[in-house]
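[Automated response] Your request has been received and processed.

Submitted sequence:
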Amino acid sequence: MRAEKIANGDTQVVEVPSYDQLIWPTVKAMKALGGSGSNKEIYDKLVELEGYSEEIQQVPASENASVSSLLEYRSYWARTYLKKYGAIESSGRAVWVLLDKGEKLTEAEVSKISSIVRKQDRLHKQKQEATEEFIKSEEDGADEEDWKENLLNVLKEMDPSAFERLCQRILRENGFTKVQVTGRSGDGGIDGIGILRINLLSFHVSFQCKRYKDSVGAGAIRDFRGAMVGRGDKGLFITTGSYTPDARKEASRDGAPAIDLIDGEELCDLLKDLKLGVHTEMTEKVMLKPEWFKDI
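Generated structure:
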C-alpha cells in the first residue's frame, strides 16, 4: 500500500504513510528504545527516526478514531499487525515489548506481514501468544514459596543485560517514562535512569539492578548513592537477593538521599502482579457443611 495523499487545507497535499509503511519504522523505534516502550514513546521515537514533518503529524484522523492524528492512528495499526504476527506483545498497560521474533525481523520480511496477518484473520487461526504458556507449575498445588524460589532461580540465570532490560520493562509497566539502560556503558554504578510522574510532580530516578544470590550490604548502597549524586532525585535498587539490616539503614539514613529497595521476594510479587512471565490460575474448592442440613 502506498502513502496516501491527504488534502490539508485548501491547497497543500500531504503524503501520510500507510499503516504497513509504518511497520518497519515501528520495529526500528522499539529497538532504539531498548526493546520496549509505551505508545507515546514508540510514536515519538518513530517520528524522530523517520523525520516526519509537522505537516504530516498534523493531518487529522477520522472523527471516530481514538487519537487526533492520522499518523498516530496508523502507527497504532502498525503495532496491531506486529502483535498479530507475534513480533511484539503488550501487557494491557499500553507498554509494548519486542519479542525474539521481532528482534530477528528484516525489512524484506516486514513487507509480507500485512498479507500474512490478513490471511490469519480470514482463516481464524491466529496462534495464542507464547506468554500465555511461559510458566506453568510442574506440580499441582505448589505453594507460594515454591514458585518464588523457582522464579528466582530463573532470574539468577539470566544474562546481566537481559535482567537490566527486564527491570526496564518493570519500571515502564509501573508508570515510568523515558526509561534507559545505561549500565552496559559503565555509567559509574548506575544501571539505568527513568522519570516517574506523580500528579503534578516529576522525579528523575536512577536505578541499579543486580542478580545477587546473597545479601546486599551497606557498602553497595553507599556506592550507588555516590554514583547518583547530581544525576537524579531518587534512587531505586533492585536485587534477586536480600538486604542486610545495615544496608536498609543506609538506604534510609537521615541527611542522605533516600534509596528505595526491592528484594527478591518483592521482585517476584511485582512480576506476578504485572503478569510478566508468571501465570496465575484460580481453582474452585467445594466444602460440605453437614450442620446446615440439620437446621432444615
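Summary generated for your ticket: The domain at 4-130 is CATH 1.10.10 (Arc Repressor Mutant, subunit A). DSSP finds 13 helices and twelve strands in the chain.
If you did not submit this request, please reply to this message.
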